[in-house]
Amino acid sequence: MSTNRLITRSANVLAISGIALALGTAPAYAHVSAQPDEAEKGGYAKIAFRVPNEDPVAGTVQVKVTLPEQYPLSSVRTKPIPGWTAQVEKAQIPPVEVDGAQVTEAVRSITWTAQPGTRIGPDEFNEFEATLGALPDNADELLLPTTQTYDNGKVVEWNQPTPPGGEEPEHPAPTVKLVAAEEGGHSHGGTPSGTPEQASDQHGSSDETARYLGGAGLLVGALGLGVGAGALVRGRRSGGES
């Protein structure tokens, strides 16, 4: 095989590989997590619980998130997901003041259950979204233990806290870091304060924009890789002809 032909084939492989990377599916995630992992104290946040399926043969059919009893959340709204039903469980609590109002009832858990014929299959993941608030202003993080149930009966508890500066445990609980609001009303990590509607609307648009820009950036990078490889081939050919 001639040198020019070898270079040409290598350039094609590089270009195709780059485009496949840009247009490929989302990466796999090792454990259940909360996205974004940072929110504003005292505000409302849209949180997506990202659930990967780690069993090679079974599928996930139920996801239950337990909310912290010591930090009662009076407002929890779930986003409809085709093929899944969401149940929000509430409980009576001693009267407390949350976001300027007396609250005697708080949400204790959210359970998403797959309808017949629906599941998260092997090598797949899904995201379960909810707006939560008002978030506590006297805590630095929210620990959100999550139970993942498979259609073969296996149950995985993602409920282990990660020690500060320590090694991540085998089954870490989804955690949202709570940060103080910046001056001027700007929020950390794109998590808005205000109402549940504002949290949902602002995060919906920012998530879509981020995904679009991320995909566009990867595609441009892949095309640049292909152009660079083509230039290399032309350069070698010109050198051989001179």
From TrEMBL:
UniProt keyword terms in alphabetical order: Membrane, Signal, Transmembrane, Transmembrane helix
Keyword Protein biosynthesis set for record: no
Family matches, as Gene3D superfamilies: Uncharacterised protein YcnI-like PF07987, DUF1775
First and last residue of the signal peptide: 1-30
Membrane spanning stretches: 212-233
Residue ranges annotated for the YncI copper-binding domain, each copy included: 31-178
Protein name in the entry: Uncharacterized protein YcnI
